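User: Here's a protein and a ligand (pyridoxal-5'-phosphate). What would the complex look like?
Assistant: Let me lay out the input and then the predicted complex.
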Amino acid sequence: MNDNQTRTTPFSREFIERLTEKYPTPFHIYDERAIRENARRMNAAFSWVPGGYKNYFAVKALPNPAIMQIVRDEGMGFDCSSMAELALCERLGVSGEEIMFTSNDTPAAEYRKARELGAIINLDDITHVPFLERTAGFPDLICLRYNPGQLRQGNAIIGKPEEAKYGFTREQLIAGYADAKKAGAKRFGLHTMVASNELDPEYFVETAAMLFDLVVEIHKKTGIKMEFVNLGGGVGIPYRPDQTAVDLERVSRGAHDAYRASIEKNELAPVRIVSENGRVVTGPYGYLVSRVIHTKDTYKKYVGLDASMANLMRPGMYGAYHHITVLGKENTPRDVMYDVTGSLCENNDKFAIDRALPRVEIGDFVAIHDTGAHGHSMGFNYNGKLRSAELLLRPDGTVEMIRRAETLDDHFATLDV
Ligand SMILES: *Cc1c(COP(=O)(O)O)cnc(C)c1O
């Protein structure tokens, strides 16, 4: 890693030091201004879409009502995949076609809840057509999830969809729309999502083109006119300083070309385009702030934080890179190699391995970058670690606590002790 590759934080060491007088570390802090600006860029990129483009924010990425309200203000809906996520939308007063319910292995009670809220239901399997009809009643509007399987084998970009548990095969998809029509559906959507954290814009153009062609084929075979295609989520973010963000304008231009060549040429317009991204919406705009409580020099050099993998699972679970800034030492050479650890009794409780950092001292604050999606939400309680607070950095520079930290009483609440 190049020493000069620094990434900025929207706060200084002094700011964090003052903040910790009120909110002790560790905490996740989210940058509202940056979330809003990014949401506006996303929407602007797809402003050509007939009938309007809409991203359904994947709630699992950052299931906090304050954040959900911000992205809702910016015109987003919500992609849910569980009872809790549906219930969170309900409590926020979100209902109807503002919700996309994209689940798999779905319990009947969740389909009932989705129906009750009037959510757009995205079915994962052909057997869910009768399952939904039997358990919750069939809606007017239905979306089906396509898994391209081996048809896309050899395409390095799309990975190996045939290994993924999600979606209908192509044959099932054609049959599924016919089944759904028989079950009473009158409006239809088509969805796919077969990659996660993808940084190549061409991948998303190809996915859009694949779906547009499929819209044409489905129309030919079943007479169904598709109302929307859902490109799924999975737009990656540059976790590493040497990576670049997906150029959404380029994705949009490529998708528009494919739309003309396929949808418009076959006189099937308008077909709306929607997506269900989470990571790219909030990921880069969250930081896990933690304090150095120990340093250790054995066979390797260690920095011991007051946060652990229970606050941010991605490095331990996927070996994922998260950039680390030692606050106040942004311009100090990164000339010491450290493992940055938490206190779990698991050796994979490391935020970074062999990471070049400025010389770190006890009491330093670190900001671990890109924790705004799949960060706090993936947290867990192993070793009795408590979930941290979540803070919101407002555009005016003030900070609001949008989730308090758990207490031991919270942790023991399900026990009789
Ligand atoms: C996880 C998931 C998303 C969001 O993924 P991101 O990487 O956060 O964009 C969207 N749709 C489905 C079906 C998912 O499982």
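Summary: The first helix runs from residue 13 to 22.
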